[in-house]
């Protein structure tokens, strides 16, 4: 017997058990049907496992057989009901053995698959998805199998040179939702499974390092106190989220976050609420590790557009806030990439992104970067020259101007706005000038820069400037018969002169920034016009101070000395005509 193949022995034993249970065919017909079905599926699964079938096709085929077996298994009566089928102690014992062998057969199929390929842990993820879709599938006996398979996989991962388990993030998300389940036995098995999953992830993390530690120590993090940690996971979502963020690689953590985000739309409110709770805690501590931020932001926008009264709307907006903390540039670029004018959903997402003060400077600097672009301007891929286009995808500067109307008044942005006032002022000046080209073609899209400029003045203590400009019909000035560039230049001259008349307190910072622009050199001729207007008009505040300051700077002296020497009674508009 010892010389026989172990699989042969197992098959002989199965045959013997079958003969033993034959006399109970009538009493336990349902169990024997399950047993027969699982035996047939197992044969196919093992045959595929040792074949040279394409890996993806192999997994898909095996998954179908696993699903068939799974559905037979969950339809099987409980052990207590199975015992009731027996009429004697011997029958009850045989029924228990049959019941246990059915479970063992299914578990052995899973163990066999995982032992040869960690990639096939994805099957466990699919099982958990089936269980989340139908509450009758969520059974303690299935959770115990999943836990044991994960424990076996964690043991196999020790000392391996590679652990290819890309599904760990999604698998962790599914298990995390069960760690606080009302059924304590299910919660216990799920939390134990999480511990073993973290062991696997730790091995994966260590292997990815340039100088990995001793392979024997890969999985020792939880080995001495798995029960203790599992209990903490059940009681404290913060502990669970911290461990998830610390253990999973960035790509897997992103899968974890994405999976939970998708659960927010679950028809089961309890699942959606639990997913939101874990998601928010995880991002609170580890949002900096999340990749594909733009994809997440876009998914939230689409979901809220589909249903503006979404039950988890507040949680989705909180996700935007948390991602903005650590990835403001990615969030803002995505939020500026939607058509203008912005809809209510997008404005709410802007408000969520601007709800905290810490990322405010980074958000505004990102918007300033976008405002360097000219609406409708595109680069020809063949000639490399700039050309004008009304392609809706090239209107990010308009979206950025409109977004400033939301960001600038926020209390959390007060300090950042004060720090970046000159940059914001000039960027909006440029945009007012650029958008004049669009005024005749896109009448409903040309006032965002002016609106943002007005908000900037009011947020910066320059309300009196705004009032004066309004009296002079600055904000609703219709197009004159003059060419639009000249008309806009006069409008900019009026703003610069009004600021000068009120001796605006941001004068030193603005003056310094104007000098910086002049030295660096504007990118477009329109930019030069705007810089000229402001330099000449702000000189009315204190011409001697202005001259002494700029003439002491060699680079500026050679470039703009003629402007400073202009007589003070010559308005900017007079030489703009020449």
UniProtKB/TrEMBL annotation:
PANTHER family: MAESTRO HEAT-LIKE REPEAT FAMILY MEMBER 9, MAESTRO-RELATED HEAT DOMAIN-CONTAINING
Cellular component, GO annotation: cytoplasm
Pfam family, one: HEAT_Maestro
Protein known as: Maestro heat like repeat family member 9
Xref: InterPro entries: Maestro-like_HEAT, Maestro_heat-like_prot
Domain Maestro-like HEAT-repeats span(s) in chain numbering: 139-364
Gene: MROH9
């Amino acid at each position: 017997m010892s010389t026989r193949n172990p699989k042969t022995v197992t098959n002989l034993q199965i045959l013997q058990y079958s003969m033993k249970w034959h006399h109970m065919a009538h009493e336990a017909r349902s169990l024997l049907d399950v047993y027969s079905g699982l035996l047939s599926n197992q044969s196919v699964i093992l045959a595929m496992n040792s074949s040279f079938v394409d890996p993806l096709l192999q997994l898909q085929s095996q998954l179908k057989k696993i699903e068939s077996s799974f559905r037979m298994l969950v339809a099987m009566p409980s052990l207590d009901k199975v015992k009731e089928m027996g009429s004697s102690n011997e029958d009850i014992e045989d029924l228990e053995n049959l019941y246990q062998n059915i479970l063992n057969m299914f578990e052995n199929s899973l163990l066999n698959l995982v032992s040869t390929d960690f990639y096939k842990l994805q099957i466990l993820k699919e099982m958990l998805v089936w269980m989340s879709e139908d509450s009758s599938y969520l059974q303690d006996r299935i959770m115990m199998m999943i836990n044991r398979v994960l424990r076996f996989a964690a043991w196999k991962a020790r000392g391996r040179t590679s652990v290819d388990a890309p599904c760990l993030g999604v698998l962790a998300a599914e298990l995390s939702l069960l760690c606080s389940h009302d059924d304590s036995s299910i919660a216990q098995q799920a939390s134990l499974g999480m511990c073993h999953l973290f062991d696997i992830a730790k091995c994966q993390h260590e292997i990815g390092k340039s100088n990995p530690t001793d392979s024997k120590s890969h999985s020792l993090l939880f080995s001495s106190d798995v029960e203790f940690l599992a209990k903490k996971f059940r009681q404290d979502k913060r502990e669970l989220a911290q461990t998830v963020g610390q253990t999973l690689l960035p790509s897997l953590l992103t899968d974890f976050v994405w999976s939970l985000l998708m659960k927010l739309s679950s028809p089961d409110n309890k699942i959606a609420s639990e997913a939101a709770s874990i998601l928010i805690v995880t991002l609170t501590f580890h949002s900096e590790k999340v990749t594909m931020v733009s994809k997440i932001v876009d998914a939230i926008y689409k979901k809220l557009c589909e249903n503006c009264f979404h039950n988890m709307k507040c949680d989705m907006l909180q996700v935007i806030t948390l991602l903005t903390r650590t990835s403001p540039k990615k969030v803002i670029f995505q939020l500026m990439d939607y058509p203008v004018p912005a809809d209510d959903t997008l404005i709410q997402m802007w408000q969520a992104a601007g709800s905290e003060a810490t990322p405010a400077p980074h958000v505004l600097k990102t918007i300033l970067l976008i405002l360097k672009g000219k609406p409708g301007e595109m680069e020809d891929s063949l000639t490399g020259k700039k050309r004008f286009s009304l392609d809706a995808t090239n209107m990010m500067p308009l979206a950025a101007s409109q977004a400033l109307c939301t960001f600038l008044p926020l209390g959390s942005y007060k300090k950042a706005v004060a720090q970046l006032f000159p940059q914001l002022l000039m960027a909006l000046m440029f945009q007012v000038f650029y958008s004049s080209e669009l005024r005749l073609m896109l009448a409903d899209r040309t006032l965002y820069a002016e609106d943002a400029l007005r908000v900037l003045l009011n947020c910066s203590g320059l309300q009196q400037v705004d009032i004066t400009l309004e009296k002079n019909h600055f904000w609703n000035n219709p197009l004159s018969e003059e060419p639009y560039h000249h008309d806009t230049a006069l409008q900019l001259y009026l703003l610069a002169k009004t600021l000068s008349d009120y001796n605006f307190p941001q004068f030193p910072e603005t003056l310094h920034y104007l000098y910086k622009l002049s030295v660096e050199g504007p990118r477009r001729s329109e930019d030069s016009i705007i810089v000229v207007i402001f330099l000449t008009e702000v000189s009315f505040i204190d011409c001697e101070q202005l001259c002494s300051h700029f003439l002491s700077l060699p680079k500026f002296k050679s470039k703009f000395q003629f402007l400073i020497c202009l007589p003070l009674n010559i308005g900017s508009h007079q030489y703009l005509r020449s």
